[in-house]
């Protein structure tokens, strides 16, 4: 497959992935904002909702990375396709979590035609996202079941997180969400299911990358030239950067929650902030640990010692 065709493929797939993530965003907002639909959604509570929330964030982030890498001059087309893979799997895994919620609580939706429409939409999203992922990867690789040969040292962690998340969705007592500790645990289970399953599926069909890949810091430095002055420092302190991104994401979620609810009582602010910021920090760390190498976010060989 020629280099020129790879660029065309990367651009086409990045735009298609953006449309899929956009469709999932529309569905996510519909299930949250429309009261008639929200009442029928058994997946509106954690751990199901946590999977969808983090899946949406991961999908939007990776769709953006794919666009940057596919369309900027000198970008890496194969790494753009890898970002498409993670974005599609984020939507697919989130839809699987929604389907598990529907299967666990059929009484919430099965008696209403709108509930069946809701279930059909979830099934279509899951089929679309996972079908596109399969079609994308089959163009470049042959399926392999050998995790050990894929450079995936975090494989056992991914298996553990995905398994615990699945068990939580099937058996987690809803009453545990009544307190902060139980709610946090359900969020962690949903988050673990997302990142664990996405990582397992992504590494099960890895897209080969030839030559010297360009990492995300190279992409950002090309788009934002002032970052070049800080590139060496950013490479030296990757984990502080991950923590900073988690803090920013958590802070933004607190603001969004305040806007959505109209206000947050001063007495509840520390609890809400701790929940959102803590969850975003865990999500950022978990995502970087499991998917950082696959997405080639930072070239470890170029990190200053």
Automatic annotation (TrEMBL):
TM ranges: 52-71, 83-103, 115-134, 154-172, 184-203, 238-260, 272-297
Keyword flag Membrane: yes
Keywords: Membrane, Transmembrane, Transmembrane helix
Protein name: Uncharacterized protein
Organism expressing this protein natively: Thermobaculum terrenum (strain ATCC BAA-798 / CCMEE 7001 / YNP1)
Lineage: Bacteria, Bacillati, Chloroflexota, Chloroflexia, Candidatus Thermobaculales
């Amino acid at each position: 497959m020629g280099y020129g065709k790879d660029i065309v493929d990367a651009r086409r797939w990045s735009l298609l992935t953006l449309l899929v993530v956009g469709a999932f965003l529309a569905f996510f907002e519909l299930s949250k904002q429309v009261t008639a639909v929200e009442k029928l959604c058994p997946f509106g509570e954690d751990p199901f909702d946590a999977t969808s929330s983090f899946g949406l964030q991961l999908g939007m982030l990776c769709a953006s990375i794919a666009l940057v890498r596919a369309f900027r001059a000198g970008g890496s087309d194969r790494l753009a396709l890898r970002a498409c893979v993670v974005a599609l799997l984020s939507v697919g895994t989130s839809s699987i979590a929604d389907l598990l919620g529907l299967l666990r609580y059929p009484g919430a939706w099965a008696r209403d035609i709108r509930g069946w429409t809701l279930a059909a939409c979830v099934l279509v999203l899951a089929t679309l996202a996972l079908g596109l992922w399969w079609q994308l990867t089959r163009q470049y690789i042959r399926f392999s079941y050998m995790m050990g040969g894929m450079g995936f040292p975090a494989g056992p962690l991914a298996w553990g997180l995905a398994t615990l998340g699945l068990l939580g969705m099937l058996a987690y007592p809803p009453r545990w969400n009544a307190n902060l500790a139980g709610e946090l645990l359900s969020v962690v289970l949903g988050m673990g299911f997302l990142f664990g399953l996405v990582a397992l599926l992504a590494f099960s069909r890895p897209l080969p990358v030839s030559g010297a890949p360009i990492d995300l810091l190279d992409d950002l430095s090309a788009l934002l030239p002032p970052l070049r002055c800080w590139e060496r420092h950013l490479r030296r302190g990757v984990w502080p950067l991950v923590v900073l991104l988690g803090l920013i994401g958590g802070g933004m979620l607190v603001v969004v929650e305040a806007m959505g609810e109209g206000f947050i009582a001063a007495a509840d602010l520390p609890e809400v902030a701790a929940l959102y910021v803590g969850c975003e920090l865990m999500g950022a760390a978990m995502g970087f640990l499991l998917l950082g190498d696959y997405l080639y976010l930072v070239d470890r060989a170029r990190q200053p010692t």
